[in-house]
Amino acid sequence: MAGGGGLSVATTVPAFRSDAPLDRPLARAVSAGQARALAGLGLHTVGDLLRHYPRRYAAPGTLTDLAGLLDGEHVTVVAEVVQATMRPTRDGKTLLEAQVTDGVGLLRLGFFAKHRGALRYQEHALVPGRRGLFTGVVSSYRGTRQLMHPQFTIVGAGSEDEERARAESTWPIPLYPASKSIASWQIRDGVRHLLEPLGEDDVPDPLPAAVRATYHLPTLREALELAHVPRTDTDWKRGLDRLRYEEAFVLQAELARRRARVADQAAVRRPPVTGGLLDRFDARLPFVLTAGQREVGAELAEELARPHPMQRLLQGEVGSGKTVVALRAMLQVVDAGGQAALLAPTEVLAAQHARTLHALLGDLAEAGFLGGAEQATRVALLTGSQPAAARRQALADAAGGRAGIVVGTHALLSATVQFAELGLVVVDEQHRFGVEQRDALRAKAGTTPHLLVMTATPIPRTVAMTVFGDLETSVLREIPAGRSGVRTFMADAGRPAYMARTWALVREHVDGGGRAFVVCPRISSDDDAGDGMDLLADDDGPVRRPLRAVLDVAEELADRPELAGVQVGVLHGRMASDDKDRALAEFAAGALPVLVCTTVIEVGVDVPAATVMVVLDADRFGLSQLHQLRGRVGRGAAPGVCLLVSRAEEGSAAWTRLQTLVETSDGFALAAADLELRREGDVLGAAQSGVGSSLRLLRVTRDADVIDRARADATALVAQDPELTGWPALVAAIEDRLAGEREEFLDRV
């Protein structure tokens, strides 16, 4: 009906009572059509619907600004009826035409029917002076904005209790995330109908009573009432504050429980050994460790010597020297009779790590080979596409213990890979590995191995507490001496003179002995995107131009006069492993001084001679990703230049994002800004797993104080009851919200 009404309760089932009322399927609680509409919003149970919180609240005396409406938008507006008239049309139908206002502008409402009687409800409801919520798709007719056949509800109408109706007309109006299939007030009415019969015992509360008392928080049943049926603004603010704290507490309780479990596990102690490989490596280092590297190294050394597993996250600025810190930890484990496994997300990065470790160790990585040091180990590389002979040798070195360090991709997880004494697992880019993959590697050790997680993306403190909350965190901020840094500029892709200067600059650097990366979002013009990169949704409307592709750009650059005689190579994820290694090696050697690639080079690739980074369609990348790409150049003595090429208009959201990168080199500040711009579900890994974020109200960039309090409270509770056996409602909430793929981002052990 145009008038809408609320969700209708299914008549084929008894009154709403069950042993677990919140688990009741909506298909048994509302009409079939409404259940389908709610399922489209991801709501399947009564509990899901009650946790579908309003996105905002409209004050009953505040009308929507109608001037901001755009054609094609699906909107819900609060407006006052000015007039409504009924007249016949030329084709014998009836048109009811109404006008509503925000006090300044007008919005037309139109309803067609075969006869006047079919519009009786609208005629009686749309009385001048009444206020209502009107939902529909905005269009224009003769220069006037309109909603055709909108759904609507009149504020305070429809109640049999006239006094309550007058009271409700002064209450805040909750506006819910809705869809074309179901309007906001229909969701509101359904929530009220299903919430009203529930008692306190029907709504198990995850928060312990003592915690609620400390902060004067309402019960869960009370909080839901305050959020969905507020009488004042204070009501809904108090309700949402409690629900926000609950989200933080449930998450931190699970993280605390995991930390407690790890603390109870046994691990083999790996203390430093005087005169071992680590001492020999330190003695020949051609550079001085930064203060941060020494401090973090001491933390790792102490934890590796304990009889419980180390669980540590190592994060830092681009180029801050995380690899050297990780290598020193691996050598300490090797000295103590163990092995270390380094997992990388791609073959390119795994091969790069292996080359870097070989270069750093020199003859210390050549045990048993001619020219190897008297006291040495081996670094083995295991990937899925390496030649059979090399793979057999690597497998034998890992199983026999000759390889103290084994580097690989997912190939390390296969049943054929065995370790003699796995003591330390180093995971690079943790978020790219799933639960089963981490468990598979852990199972290859006799006892729980120590764990070091490295991330190349600086993580704001609140995110680290939320996403990596079961790990202790070490941060490297200082950049090693000898690096010249990178200057960043924007270039307008729509201005030929700017592009000519871009390629001329590339030529200048190549002639001076430098190398240039040219990054594209796609591999070929037939693709949606490159190597699984996380393209942003467009900030400023639909993208009508094709994104640049590696294969097309490589051909274009070969014909550019500015690059005449310069060899151009390509690198992307579809290439065979040998071809990727060859391309990167020829790039580093200067045989292919310009490399057109996807984001496969985003992290870990270390070519000191690389001095130019050109990112095409830069507005399609996130800030943190662009910061990582920028970090691939300027890693040697020569300064680097990063050119962000895009068609973003000055002042647009995309332009502002790129300008932030131009002005800021602090990776932590950029990561925080990036988080503000992107859905936090992505941060938590939910987008990659295809499920919604378990955080509906909590915002990790805004709610640091809430997270701090919840972390302390949850840690204290777990200290008293490590498995939370005395708190079944809390355990149920953990299992409900963090079950299955939704907990993947938490599984760091």
Structure commentary:
This protein has 749 residues and is α/β, with parallel strands linked by helices. It has 4 domains: 56-175, Nucleic acid-binding proteins (OB fold (Dihydrolipoamide Acetyltransferase, E2P)), CATH 2.40.50.140; 204-264 and 723-749, no CATH class; 277-476, P-loop containing nucleotide triphosphate hydrolases (Rossmann fold, 3-Layer(aba) Sandwich), CATH 3.40.50.300; 486-683, P-loop containing nucleotide triphosphate hydrolases (Rossmann fold, 3-Layer(aba) Sandwich). The protein contains 25 helices and 21 strands. A 7-stranded parallel beta sheet has the order 11-12-10-13-14-9-15, sandwiched between helices. A 6-stranded parallel beta sheet has the order 16-21-20-17-19-18, with helices on both faces. Strands 2-3-4-6-5 form a 5-stranded mixed β-barrel. Strand 18, helix 18 and strand 19 (594-597) form a beta-alpha-beta unit. Helix 8 (233-264) packs across helix 25 (728-738) and helix 9 (277-284) runs antiparallel to helix 11 (322-335). The chain is globular and about 100 Å long.
